[in-house]
Specification:
about 20% strand; 8 helices; Purple Acid Phosphatase, chain A, domain 2; single chain; 6-stranded mixed beta sheet; about 250 residues; alpha/beta
């Protein structure tokens, strides 16, 4: 089975459409979204509707939780709060209900050993980050409770780790081989707002036959996505950073 896994769309319809077009050419069996469909970008409803049509599994992201009242975002910085307020005022009832009903985590219903959450799999309700070795090492005392592969988003990076009883390995490369006895934390990157200095949309494919995960990068119309952010009078930086991938 080939599973397309993506995260952090953040209202960027141009990026989402191009990623799904790329997946259409890659023999995908099912689709999984790891949260943050909304926030920052100017088309939250369109992105929600497209994700709802396509995915088999989806989990809640922190921006999703904020706009539907499932978390307090008063501590967010001002521009992020303004974007969430803007999104909250425009989200349709149907999309609000869908986001509001998403689980914080889930196991794959077809392939044992795969776990999905937006942030750290240990306490998914806190949306903790796992993008540095120090953060990954904090998972070692809980190794026995981790799934074989935990797929996460949240950081907008392509940082992944292999853990055993004594050590954590920082994985590099476009294609990751999943091998026992390690357990894996795989961050799938961001569709709508990459932050790894590559401005192409990012997602990935897990192949259960080869036991691999491969990143997919896709170019999209950044100018159009940024212009919509500017026209919506959201923070200029949300549009500008799309060009740089930061």
């Amino acid at each position: 089975m080939r599973i397309a896994i993506f995260s952090d769309v953040h209202g960027n319809l141009e990026a989402l459409e191009e990623v799904l077009k790329a997946f259409d050419e890659l023999s995908i069996d099912k689709y999984v979204c790891l949260g943050d469909v909304v926030g920052y970008g100017a088309q939250p409803n369109e992105c929600c509707e497209l994700v709802r049509e396509r995915v088999s599994h989806a989990v809640l992201g922190n921006h999703d939780a904020a706009v539907v009242g499932r978390m307090d975002y008063s501590y967010y910085y001002a521009a992020a709060r303004q974007a969430l307020d803007w999104c909250q005022a425009r989200l349709s009832p149907e999309n609000r209900d869908w986001l509001g009903g998403l689980p914080l985590e889930m196991n794959d219903s077809d392939i044992p050993g795969l776990h999905y959450s937006h942030g750290s799999p240990l306490e998914p309700d806190t949306f903790g980050y796992v993008f540095a070795l120090e953060q990954a090492r904090e998972l070692l005392p809980h190794l026995s409770s981790l799934a074989a592969v935990s797929f996460i988003g949240h950081s907008h990076l392509c940082k992944s780790f292999a853990l055993d009883e004594e050590n954590v390995l920082d994985l590099v490369g476009r294609r990751l081989l999943i091998e026992e006895p390690h357990k894996y934390i795989v961050t799938v990157g961001s569709v709508g707002q990459p932050r790894d200095y590559d401005n192409r949309a990012c997602a990935g494919i897990f192949d259960s036959d080869s036991n691999t995960f491969e990143y997919v990068r896709v170019e999209y119309d950044i100018e159009s996505a940024a212009r919509k952010i500017f026209e919506a009078e959201l923070a200029l930086n949300f549009g500008k950073r799309l060009f740089l991938g930061i």
